[in-house]
Task: structure prediction
Amino acid sequence: NFILHAHQGEFPKIVLAAGDPKEAFELTMQAFNLADKYQTPVVVIVDK
Result:
């Protein structure tokens, strides 16, 4: 919930959560593609 409201202003954002380093690596590549496609910030968070 904090990540969703951590920015000033209301604008669309994408939040991806990874559970381990391998998944974080894969989500990082996906995050770049999503940010480029939708022209919006993407945040990748790691749970551990």
